[in-house]
Amino acid sequence: MNELPHQILEHPAEPGWKSAFEAFLEEHPDLDTLEVVLPDTNGVLRGKWLPGKALAKVFEGGVAFPYSLFGLDVWGREVEATGMHLDTGDKDGVCWPIPESLKLVPWADRKTAQVLLSMYDRDGEPFLADPRHVLENTVAQMKEEFGVTATCAFELEFYLFEESDGDWTEQPKPLFSTHLGPARQNMYALSDLEALLPVVDDLRKACEAQGIPADAAVSEAAPGQFELNLHHRNNPLLAADDVVLLRRLVAGVARKHELKASFMAKPFVEWPGNGMHVHVSMEDDNGNLFADPEHGRERLGYAINGLLKTMPEALLLFISTFNGFRRMQPGSYAPASICWGFDNRSVALRVPASSPEAARVEHRIAGADANPYLVLTGILAGMMEGLRLKKDPPAAVTGNAYEKRKKRLTPWMDEAIDAFEASKLMKKAVGLEMHKVLTEIKREELNEFGREISSLERQTYL
Questions:
Q1: Three-state SS for 141?
Q2: Mind listing the pLDDT tens digit for each residue in 322-349?
Q3: DSSP secondary structure, 378-441, as one string
Q4: Rounded to an integer, what distance in angstroms lies between the CA atom of residue 190 and that of residue 218?
Q5: CB neighbours (10 Å) of residue 343?
Q6: How many other C-beta atoms can be found within 10 angstroms of the C-beta atom of residue 275?
Q7: Residues 276 and 243 sit within 8 Å (Cβ to Cβ)
Q8: Of 436, 418, 315, 322, nearest in space to 364 by CA
Q9: Phi/psi at 292 (nearest 5 deg)?
Q10: Where does the pLDDT of residue 366 fall: very low under 50, low under 70, confident under 90, or very high at 90 and above?
């Protein structure tokens, strides 16, 4: 008789994972529901709801999900060209919980907890089409090659809408689009925050309950648009986890208040899109590499040059949706060219004004709908390439970067896919598995949009 595939018996996490869920169970013996959450290649959350009593079973034995969840397009459909579906028998891997992410869900109607998962094979090895493991490998490579780690902080923009009947064939109106007169910018308006005080207060309380290090909340550059800033983490994996959990939190709290939150990169032609800005520094045992009195500015320049050099081939990691490329419009506070500058919000890479100890790069390219694990992978791969090459960047841009004659970032998804597919550096950065999977998924998504006939075409040609 053939032996059955064996199950992993030991949790592949760090010591202490068992005490984490045992303490949680002791504090919450009346847990009703457990949500197990697995971010896929697009950052879409897959998973299932389990009874609360299943918590111990999940931590002790993992959760079986098919590897093919990482071969789905943004609509949740199988992309056969990835080779991850019936060609392999659609096998299951084992998803293990990330202990730090086990938290109550404050916006749920019943007592509910959620926990993030990551995928492993049956021998306990990381499944390398899981974006979290891709970032984990990048972090390990940084430590091995340069003896450094990264400190990261994300900023996320989003729109709030009134709940609709689900018909999005007509353009929805964001909150405050007719508030106090015609729709207009109301940048950093306290009145907008005050008008949504119950929502903002629930967002703050939910972040505290889930241990998500959210900082400032501001009204952004369009009616109904807001931004939440996260505190920095000296662990890139946890920083990316924060983004995944924060997006789910914002959507859940908004729904509780009969609102819809959208992280869509470019919901409106006339208003700014939603960005995901990432602040990154690199540290060794002596502290921030960019703060060193003797070599800090030089190393910062090397990192910036690496990011500029790799930007075209890594662009698909930062902008991975068809809609995301619509955001890259001149004059829109989204970067349109490959350039950098000091305290300049019109460039792709901004060096914020700060104390020397906080010297860092703000990467301004990604849309708010991007996968944060892959965004950080692309950023760290570019910075490492800069440290290898040890070349100074071109001159910093001053003034309005949209008016300078700089090489443009492509606004076309097909060109970004081609550049990513052809890049040897990207194959190394994300691994051969993720490189193939992401390329095939994005080509299929682009083809699907190409098969659609827009209302503008019908208005023009019928």
A1: helix
A2: 999 999 887 667 898 999 999 998 899 9
A3: HHHHHHHHHHHHT-PPPPPP-S-GGGS--PBPP--HHHHHHHHHH-HHHHHHHHHHHHHHHHHH
A4: 8
A5: 12
A6: 25
A7: yes
A8: 315
A9: -60, 125
A10: very high
C-beta atoms surrounding 23 within 10 Å: 11
Collect all residues with Cβ–Cβ distance below 8 Å to 366 and sequence separation of at least 6: 275, 276, 277, 278, 318, 319, 375
Q: What is the mean pLDDT of residues 56-64?
A: 91
C-alpha distances out from residue 195 to 150, 172, 221, 262, 286, Å: 38, 20, 17, 19, 46
Q: What is the mean pLDDT of residues 394-422?
A: 92
Structural domains of the chain ordered from first start: 17-127 (3.10.20.70), 138-461 (3.30.590.10)
Report which of 319, 280, 352 is spatially closest to residue 420, judged by C-alpha positions.
319
With 0-12 / 13-18 / 19 or more C-beta atoms within 10 angstroms meaning exposed / middle / buried, residue 448 is: middle
Residues 6+ apart with CB under 8 A from 215: 228, 229, 230, 231
Taking a C-beta distance cutoff of 8 angstroms, is the pair 228, 155 a contact?
yes
- Two tokens at 400? 């309005």
Are 148 and 142 within 8 A, CB to CB? yes
Which single residue is written with the structure tokens 């995928």? 119
User: Rounded to whole angstroms, what are the CA distances from 235 to 152, 272, 282, 369, 403?
Assistant: 7, 31, 11, 21, 37
Residue written as token pair 């990381």: 126
How many CB atoms are located within 10 Å of the residue 414 CB? 14
Query: What value does the mean pLDDT take over residues 416-420?
Result: 98
Q: What's the token pair of residue 349? A: 């890479």
Mean pLDDT over the full length of the chain: 89
pTM of the entire structure? 0.93
> What is Dmax (Cα atoms) for the chain?
77
195 by Cβ neighbours in 10 Å (0-12 / 13-18 / 19+) ranks as middle
